[in-house]
Design a protein that fits this description.
With about 425 residues, this protein is of the alpha/beta class. Helix content is about 30%, strand content about 20%.
Length: about 425
């Protein structure tokens, strides 16, 4: 029963908390668009966009009162002017803040709450990833694919990394928040896990809009996986896509079985498909770690269960460490969708942030061992990871397995040699 329960939680919160609603900013557009890049462009290794999405500054203005806490984004003050408020005694409120580079803060802030420092701290992917970068392990030579919402093509975090951009049943008519976030977490120059990996991007909407709202159809997710496998047949041998990042879960929705089947086809083709429902196809549960605003992202002691699922964990409703693999999630900074150089910070994240983080780590590992398989990666991730005791309200809980990137890559390197 525990495994079924965790699957339900993962599927729901990957969208609600993880992506801050996958449909966020999509609007009720009724005409999905599919547009593919010519085969010759892929064969010749050209950087090609089927179309370039529009984006622009988010004009939200000054607030006369602070917004209510949002279930997904906490205190959402992105692009607002809140300079007229005295927040010196609002430290508890700000522990769940989401803000961006355009937020105008007041002078009166709680001691230790420095928006600039928090933003910079959140850019660090954590768990020693930057130390690996210093050693030259950056994902260079590895290609990944991302399936998500429409992407701002010009952000400095990843503009040079995107090799191909096409649409498959996409209802977005402009850049969306979610795409920029996941792309920068995977390959961003300042906040990405694999800053030298290249990206092939498919913008897609997993359903259709009608008078009653959005009706999910995960056949479009399966189609996206198959399209990436088709693209792979066109790419030169040295440029094959090795991992797909899709920040979406599935269980019993329309098309879920087709997604499972598409993932099996990808496995047969040597491509790792990372979603928020890894249980069915890969036998482990991907979960996200919690972290407070200014704690050290590289220190494992900074982490606990992710904010959105910690209550279930402490109440004993979550699965045990035998098949949970945890990576950073909360307290992350990522590229904004509405500018070329702005950022957003979210105190509480969700599994949508964990998926591209894992895809980026797999890219680092592929740089070390080009023959790596998803099965070996998963095995070694558990063997080299850490199960950490966590103290909470007088009790001790086993949290893990927390991934250890340095130990994992060292193990893979030794095995390769």
């Amino acid at each position: 029963m525990k495994k079924k329960f965790i699957l339900l939680i993962v599927t729901v919160f990957a969208v609600a908390a993880g992506g801050f609603l996958f449909l966020f900013l999509s609007g009720a557009f009724l005409m999905p668009v599919t547009g593919q890049i010519p085969k010759e462009a892929y064969r010749e290794g050209q950087r090609t966009f089927y179309r370039r999405e529009e984006y622009g500054a988010w004009e939200r203005g000054a607030l006369s009162e602070l917004p209510a806490q949002d279930i997904n984004m906490g205190l959402d003050i992105r692009s607002y002017d809140i300079s007229g408020f005295d927040l010196a005694d609002q430290g508890d409120l700000l522990t769940a803040v989401t803000f961006d580079s355009a937020t105008v803060f007041p002078d009166d802030l709680p001691d230790g709450f420095d928006p600039g420092e928090i933003m910079e701290n959140g850019k660090n992917p954590g768990l020693g990833i930057r130390t690996l970068h210093e050693k030259g392990i950056t994902g260079e030579g590895v290609n990944i694919a991302i399936v998500d919402q429409a992407l701002n093509p010009d952000h400095v975090e990843y503009a040079d990394q995107v090799m191909g951009y096409e649409l498959l049943h996409c209802c977005d008519t402009a850049a969306q928040m979610h795409g920029s976030a996941v792309t920068s977490i995977a390959v961003g120059k300042n906040c990405g896990v694999a800053p030298d990996a290249k990206v092939y991007y498919i913008a897609s909407t997993f359903g259709r809009y009608g008078a009653g709202g959005m009706k999910m159809n995960l056949n479009y997710m399966a189609d996206s996986i198959d399209r990436i496998l088709e693209i792979n047949t066109l790419l030169p041998k040295e440029d094959k896509i090795r991992v797909i990042s899709i920040s979406r879960g599935f269980s019993v929705e329309k098309g879920a079985d087709e997604v499972r089947a598409a993932i099996e086809r990808a496995k047969d083709a040597g491509v790792f498909v990372i979603t928020t429902s890894t249980e069915d196809n890969y036998g482990f549960s991907l979960m996200g770690l919690g972290k407070e605003l200014m704690t050290d992202p590289d220190d494992i002691s900074s982490y606990g269960p992710g904010h959105f699922w910690s209550e279930y964990f402490y109440e004993g409703e979550m699965a045990d460490a035998s098949y949970m693999l945890l990576v950073p999630m909360d307290g992350r900074t990522y590229a904004s969708w509405n500018s070329t150089d702005g950022y957003e910070f979210a105190a509480s994240g969700g599994l949508s942030w964990s998926v591209p983080w894992m895809a980026g780590l797999y890219a680092l590992c592929l740089q070390v061992d080009e023959d790596l398989t998803p099965e070996l990666f998963i095995q070694k991730a558990f063997e080299t990871g850490t199960v950490k005791p966590v103290e909470y309200q007088g009790g001790t809980y086993e949290l893990g397995t927390i991934i250890d990137p340095a130990a994992l890559i060292e193990e893979l390197g030794q095995q390769k040699n």
